[in-house]
Design goal:
alpha/beta; Rossmann fold; 2 domains; eight-stranded mixed β-sheet; five-stranded parallel β-sheet; 13 helices; 19 strands; about 35% helix; globular; binds cytidine-5'-triphosphate
Length: about 400
């Protein structure tokens, strides 16, 4: 995300300090960031901090005499691609819900016609109070996006809902709202990601090195392009992307069931998960105790999900598989494309530095029955963007 004009409204919550990182990161990426603070917010973070991070004058007072090149709240409101209020206190949500415009933040907010997002952060009881919930519902009714607060430890000592999401999560939500190229609008994209786990006993399982980064990047890009996204996720430590339906699964069998159940309604299925090919024949219901000598675990084949849906695929559905290889990349990938009846196979060799598990970059080739497109070394986010554009943007 770059070259966007983002207005960040900061209100008086202790989580205001997290917004310093958000502003800094948005600016570093090449966006124009304007911070408007309420008077009380200045007690938590100084305007100078945001001014330094954003390289823009921070506005707190509507009637300041030294800064009136134009009617600032109106010009900023016209210019903004997105207005985000974070942290949003119960007080600001109540004001916004009822059209109160009594300071720079609320007047600019009311004058803005761009997409608006509110990120509540407050004590759990304040958030759960039916008055606050009604005000949030009112904001939603007027088309504002609400980013649900994560549950966790709060500054007041309570543990529960009301925590401000991490800056990276807010940034991800912003990215989803400012994208203008919505070429997947109206399409349902189902994506699998991460590693499956095959249980041996209640303590142990078989898995692989997949971290889910590629699949999650694809889910975010598809969402940014306007798709309804269902992300069927195996094991990963990644945060749940904003605006994506995430279904958590454990084993290859669970993933298969979930993909098959979603397949009818899907326009596109992308199988980027690293699915186990084998699972233990017997799953012990107790911990297997060690004994003298070696241990062999008998494994059986799992069902191939891509093959299953490739066979069922309708003319108007697009199925994309992955092929992670150590040898003969193109031959193996082309074989998978044909055998599994996919429209595309995204092939990568984990032998190449910068590709494969855990890293933030990838090196892939997009293989169709008629072409091979080499994307070269890119970040996983850019790889995801290029894959979706190449395969789905007509
Ligand atoms: N796949 C699947 N179901 C499985 C195994 C793999 O749907 N049980 C999918 C993967 O999600 C990927 C593609 O098939 O999109 C290729 O997976 P990969 O592990 O590269 O190859 P396999 O088909 O498992 O073959 P091999 O392990 O022999 O390379």
């Amino acid at each position: 995300m770059k070259n966007k004009c983002i207005v960040v409204g900061v209100t008086a919550g202790i989580a205001a300090y997290k917004i310093c990182q958000l502003v800094s990161s948005l600016k570093k990426q090449g966006n124009e960031v304007h911070v408007i603070m309420t008077k009380e917010a200045e007690k938590f973070v100084t305007p100078l901090t945001f001014q330094t991070l954003s390289s823009q004058k921070v506005i707190t007072d509507m009637f300041t005499v030294d800064y009136t090149p134009d009617v600032h709240h109106i010009s900023l409101a016209k210019k903004a691609d997105l207005f985000v209020v974070a942290p949003a206190t119960a007080n600001i949500i109540a004001k916004i819900a009822h059209g109160v415009a009594d300071d720079m933040l609320t007047t600019t907010f009311l004058a803005s016609t761009c997409p608006k997002m509110i990120v509540p952060a407050m004590n759990t009881n304040m958030l759960n109070n039916p008055i606050t919930q009604d005000n949030i519902a009112t904001c939603q009714k007027y088309g504002m996006h609400i980013m649900c607060s994560g549950a966790g430890y709060l500054a007041c000592g309570d543990v529960g809902a009301g925590r401000l999401p991490e800056p990276e999560e807010i940034e991800d939500a912003i990215a989803s709202l400012v994208e203008t190229d919505r070429y997947l609008q109206g399409r349902h994209v189902v994506i699998t990601a991460g590693a499956t786990q095959e249980e041996i006993d209640p303590v142990r399982y078989i898995t692989n090195h997949s971290t889910g980064k590629m699949g999650y990047a694809l889910a975010k890009e598809a969402r940014n392009a306007g798709a309804k996204v269902t992300l069927i996720s195996g094991k990963t430590n990644l945060p749940q992307p904003y605006g994506v339906d995430v279904v958590k699964v454990i084993s290859a069998a669970d993933m298969r069931e979930c993909v098959v159940n979603n397949f009818e309604k899907a326009d596109v299925v992308i199988m980027s998960a690293a699915v186990a090919d084998y699972t233990p024949i017997e799953k012990a219901d107790h911990k297997i105790k060690k004994a003298e000598g070696d241990l062999s675990i008998a494994l059986k084949r799992t069902q191939d999900i891509l093959l299953t849906i490739g066979k069922k695929k309708r003319e108007n559905q697009v199925v994309i598989g992955f092929a992670m290889e150590t040898e003969n990349l193109l031959e193996n990938a082309a074989k998978k494309l044909q055998e599994k009846n996919a429209n595309y196979i995204i092939a990568n060799s984990i032998r190449e530095p910068g590709a494969g598990f855990g890293v933030d970059t990838n090196i892939v080739k997009i293989i169709s029955p008629t072409s091979v497109e080499d994307l070269g070394l890119l970040s996983k986010d850019d790889t995801a963007k290029e894959i979706l554009r190449h395969c789905l943007k007509k």
